[in-house]
Design goal:
Layout lengths: L6 H45 L6 H16 L10 H17 L8 H13 L3 H13 L8 H9 L5 H14 L6 H11 L12 H9 L10 E10 L5 E9 L5 E2 L2 E7 L5 E8 L4 E2 L4 E8 L7 E6 L14 E5 L3 E3 L2 E10 L5 E11 L5 E8 L4 E2 L4 E9 L7 E10 L2
Antiparallel strand pairs: 1-2, 2-7, 3-6, 4-5, 4-8, 9-11, 10-11, 11-15, 12-13, 12-14, 12-16
Amino acid sequence: MGSSVGMSGCSIIVDIVNNSKAKKAEEEAAAAKEAELAKAREELEAMRQGAIDPAATPQQVWDYSLALGEVYDANEQDAMGVDGSWLTELETALTQRLDGAGGLSADNSLLGYSLAQVYLWTERPDEGAGTLLEFAKLGGEGPMTSVELFDSIAGLPPSDVTNAAVLELCPTLRPQIEGVNGFVSTCLDRAGGDISKLSWEGVLADLESYARSGYAKGPAAGTFTYQSKVKGYKKTFWALGFVENTSGVFLENPKVTAVLVDEGGAELGTFQGYAMIDELAPGVRAPVSILVNDPPKYADIRYEFNPEQADYLSDPVDGLRVEALQPRRKRYGWKVEGKVLSEASKPAQFVKVVVSALDADGQLVGATSTYIDEDKLEPGGEARWSTTSMDTARKPVSFEYQVTARVAD
C-alpha cells in the first residue's frame, strides 16, 4: 500500500527546514559578531599596552583615549572587557608624563586632551574644564580649535568652576565669534544673568544686539542710585539719581518712586519719576528726576524701583551723534545747546537729547532732556537742540550727552 503526505504535512516540513536555516543563520551571525568583538578586544588591549608604556608617543595615547571613549560612549564596557581600572591606569600614566614634562604645553597637547577625556568619562567636569581651559589659553593647540574648546567647556554642567572657565574665555574668544547673540547668551547664562561679569571691547553693543534677538530672556534687573537734591520753591525739590539696567533685556519706562517716611518708618507720601530714556538697553544708565512737590515734614526717603522688561522695542536708529556748545550758567539755570548729526542710514523722528551734569566726583547734580527743533532728521542731516533752564544742586564740572530716536514713518 502506498503512502501520501497531505498539504498540512508539507507545510510542517517546510517550516522545520526554514526554522533550521534561520537558527543556523543566527548562530553564524552570533559567531561572526563574537569573532569581531574578540578582534576588537584584542586591538583595544594592544592599544592599551602601547599607551601606558612610558615610551608611547602622544599620538598613541590619543588614539587609545579616542578608542576607549567610543567604548564608553556606546556603553560597551562589558562587551569589550573594559573595567574602571583602565581609566585609573590611563590617568596615572598621563599625570606622570605631564608632571615629568613640567605641565601642559603645545608639545604635549595630545596627552592633555587625553587626560581631559578621562576626567569627563569619570564625571569630573570641573577638572576637565580646568585642563581644557589651559589649552584654550595656549590658543587651541592640538586636535581642537579655541572655539571648539570653548564649546566643549560651555557644554559641561554648570558649576562655579565651569562657569568661571567659560567667563574667562568669553573676552578672548569674542573676536573669533560670528554668531554674537548665541555667544552672548552662553556667556550671560554662565554669569547668572549678571552683565557686569561680561567684559570685552564692545560688550554693550553686543548686549543690545542680544537683547533685540530671540535669544534674549529675563528677568529684568536694574538699580537706582540716589545722587543729589536740587532745591525748588520753598519745600519743593527734585531728587536726582541714575537708573542702570543690569540685565540682558531692555527695560521699559523705568519708574522710580520716592517714599517719604517719618521717624517710625510710616509712609507719609509718594512721588514718582521716570528715566529720561524710555527703552533702556543692557548696561546703560539714564538720569531720573523726581519732583517732590510741597512735601510734608519727613524723616527719610526710601526709593523703590521695580524694573520691567520691554514688551515691544522700536526699530533702532544707529549713527546719531551729539555735538554740544560749552554750557553757560544763566539766571534761571544752565543753558545747554548743540546739534544732533545723523550718520544713520534711516530717517529718525522723536530725536531726544538727554543731558547729565556731573560734579568733580562724578555725582549727578543736574539732568534734563529736550527734543531737536525738527520733526524728522534725515540721513546725513543735522538739527539743533537747546535747553535753557537746567537747575543743578551745585556747580557741575562736566556734562554727558545721550541721544535716542525712532525710525521715522
